[in-house]
């Protein structure tokens, strides 16, 4: 899509959709902006318009992702409750992706705002490392810090057996909240 002149409105959004639908990994807003010769803020506006038109685009820590690609890969999903300190976040995510799951998001129940959900979309150690680096470099807080470490994850895999293995790994590490807790 790299153009010497700016791509305008509808043409630019069509090109964004083409790129996202054909990408196997998330695409950064800055990359889309360079390709279209516009600012990143213009791309953010385009993504907002596309989402308003019910396009299944999500913003992840690695960039924008057209969601249907992920849904085709993973057939089952589950929400799990976890508890740990911020320093154990990388270990928790590595345990999950090492069992073959996609960690779709993290959510908390905030006393004022209600349910807060943030997309994570990591499925391997490289993506976990990138996620942790973004948190570290931006000095952002983990959502779980708002609830003293208690949080939920939506995880997805190709089978319930894999999800069971993921839960067992978290249980063994002391990160999984169970009905007996």
Set down the secondary structure blueprint:
Blueprint: H1 9-22, H2 29-36, H3 40-52, E1 57-60, E2 63-66, H4 68-73, E3 76-83, H5 89-98, E4 102-110, E5 114-122, H6 125-138, E6 150-157, H7 160-173
Antiparallel strand pairs: 1-2, 3-6, 4-5, 4-6
Low-pLDDT segments: none
The secondary-structure class comes to: alpha+beta
Q: Major beta sheet, specifics?
A: 4 strands, antiparallel
CA-to-CA gap between the ends? Answer: 53 Å
DSSP summary: helix tally: 7
Number of strands: 6
Average pLDDT metric: 88
Query: SSE order, as H and E?
Result: HHHEEHEHEEHEH
Strand proportion, as a percent range, falls in 15-25%
The main sheet orders its strands as: 3-6-4-5
Radius of gyration: 18 Å
Q: Estimate the global geometry from the Cα principal axes.
A: elongated
In helices, the fraction of residues equals 40-55%
Q: Which features would summarize this protein structure in a list?
A:
alpha+beta, 23% strand, four-stranded antiparallel β-sheet, single chain, two-stranded antiparallel ribbon, 181 residues
């Amino acid at each position: 899509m790299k153009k010497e002149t700016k791509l305008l409105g509808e043409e630019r959004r069509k090109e964004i959709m083409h790129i996202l639908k054909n990408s196997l990994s998330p695409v950064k807003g800055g990359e889309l902006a360079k390709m279209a010769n516009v600012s990143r803020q213009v791309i953010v506006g385009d993504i907002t318009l596309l989402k308003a038109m019910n396009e299944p685009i999500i913003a992840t820590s690695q960039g924008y992702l057209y969601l249907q690609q992920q849904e085709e890969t993973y057939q089952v999903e589950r929400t799990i409750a976890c508890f740990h300190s911020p320093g154990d976040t990388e270990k928790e995510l590595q345990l999950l992706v090492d069992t073959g799951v996609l960690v779709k998001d993290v959510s908390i129940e905030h006393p004022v705002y209600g349910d807060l959900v943030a997309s994570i979309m990591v499925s391997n150690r490289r993506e976990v490392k990138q996620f942790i680096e973004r948190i570290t470099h931006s000095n952002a807080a983990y959502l779980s810090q708002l609830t003293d470490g208690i949080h939920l994850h939506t995880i997805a895999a190709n089978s319930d057996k894999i999800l069971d293995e993921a839960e067992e790994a978290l249980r063994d590490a002391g990160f999984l909240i169970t009905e007996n807790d």
